[in-house]
Predict the 3D structure of the following.
Amino acid sequence: MSETERTYDTLHMGRSSIDLYSNDIGSPFVDITSFAAYVGGSPTNISVGGRRLGLRTALLTGLGKDPVGDFILKFLQGEGVETRFIRRKPGTRSSAVVLGIEPPDRFPLVYYRDNCADIALTIDDVLDTPISESHVFQFAGTNLSREPSRSATLFAAELARQAGTKVVLDIDFRPDQWHDPRAFGVVIRSALRMVDVVIGTEDEINAAMLTDVSHIELTDSVSDTPVRGDVDRAIRDMLSMGPEALLQKKGREGVCVHVVDRQGNVEQIEAPGFPVEVVNILGAGDAFAAGFLYGYIKNWGWYKAGRMGNACGAIVVTKHGCANFMPTYEEVMTFVEDYGGLE
């Protein structure tokens, strides 16, 4: 990363929500008796995770003028995330998510995002946010599912590239947020020319790069049903469109970082994971992104930054929720001691 001093290490744009997570771990959804209330939404989780590690993080999201928005804002302010750029959107609702927890591989998830505030982010909101004052601008694929958030996010990425701010895309494929899964791929591919680093699972990479998926039943990225496709070809095609690196998240196996060198060749760097007992996988990918971005900002190199992301993800899969359970730097360092560290 550039040594030029900027106000923020990372600026995140996209979803925010109140997350209602089942307290009845292992119970079928229909038998849930109570929920715990947390804060969620992929870029929001990453902003909190980065802040707990010690980064200076800022968030651009939308909240309704409602008690749920107050709940989210209070939590973020308590965490020390810069909230000055969060927009309260009259006539909209703050988003909500309801989750069942049936480890190790069933996590039924319901989104409540009709008329949600973060999709109402506009180009004017971006112009009022100091994109150029951050080393990294990070956004999620779900930002692109509808207007005006789609245009606003693409505009923000353009401004970031012009300012020398690194652009990081978390693919964040949520099929039920799109009118057609093929539209997801079309829009993601249109954004890749402005992206430096992409983060995604095999399913998400395939969904982004397949040009004709009419015959494929695409499922949510937390499902155990894969999106079929040639992921190696998808990775090559994605990197040919502009990004310098693609981080392929592989769950308990860790991450494979695919990096384009100066000769245009693709190098693969395997950073192994940290085996733990899974309680809830939701939020682990966001914890990974926060940990990786910490190492990326600190110029740790791809391997060590990937290991940092893996450690953060491993900690969060043992917890009940997302943003509320992101680890601190000290907690991560204590955790990795039992595994011989990050190197």
